[in-house]
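Subgroup meeting minutes
Present: P.N., E.W., G.H.
Scribe: E.W.

1. P.N. recapped why we're keeping a running log of single-chain structure predictions: easier to compare across weeks, and new members can see raw inputs and outputs side by side.
2. G.H. added today's entry (246 aa).
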Amino acid sequence: MKIKSILVSQPAPNESSPYLEIARKEKINFDFRPFIHVEGADAKELRTQKIDLSQYTGVIFTSRNAIDHYFRLAEEMRFQVPDTMRYICQSEAIANYLQKHIVYRKRKISFGEKNFADLAPLFKKYPDEKYLLPSSDVLSPETVKILDAAKIDWTRAIMYRTVCSDISDIAVGDYDMLVFFSPQGIRSLQQNFPEYKQGDTKVAVFGNTTKKAAEEAGLTVDVMAPTKETPSMTMAIEKYIKSVNK
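Output recorded in log:
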C-alpha cells in the first residue's frame, strides 16, 4: 500500500523541517496534531506532596518543562529562589534555558552530556546538597536507580502532568500512517478512539518504550526510530516511503 497521508502526533514544525522536505519530494500530505499536552500542578498539590521549596539547596532539571514549572510554582508560593541554589541540568541546552528565569552568570550551574546517567559524576562532585527533582507524573525507573545509586539526598516533586488532548475530531482512519513519540501518545489514541482498529494503517514509533506501548495496545509497528541506519524519525519515514511508494 502506497503512503499518501501521514498524521504526526506533534505540533506543526517550522518551515525548515525535514517533514516538509519529504512532503515536497515524495508528494505526501503531512498533518500535525499534538495528542498530549502538559498541565501544571498548583501550590496546593505541591503542599499535599509535603514539598517546601525552601528546604532544598540544589535542583535537578531534566527538561525545559521542569524549569518552567519549578519557577512558576516558586513565584506562586512566593519563594525567592536564592542565588546560592545549585542547578544540575541533564544537558547544556537545558542549562542554557535557565537564562529565561535567572541571571546565568555567577550561578552554580553544571550539566551533563545528554543522558541522565551522565550526571553521576556531578552528584559525586556535589554530594552534600539537598536536591529537588521537579518532574512530571511519569518518571523513568532508570532515573530513580541512578539517583539512589549516587547516595545523595533527593526528593521528587510532581510539578506537571502529561495528559491526553481531545483529538476526537480527527478522522484517524483516513491516514495511511500514524506517527508516535511517547507511550502517552498511544494512550491518547486509545482514550480518544476506544474502538480504533489499525487495519491497513502503518504505525511509526520513536523509542523502545513507545514501541512497547504500541504493541501492548495491539498495534503492529511498521517504522521504528532511532536505529543505527535511521537515527531520526524523518529519516525512518523517508526510507519506508521510498520502499513502498515505488
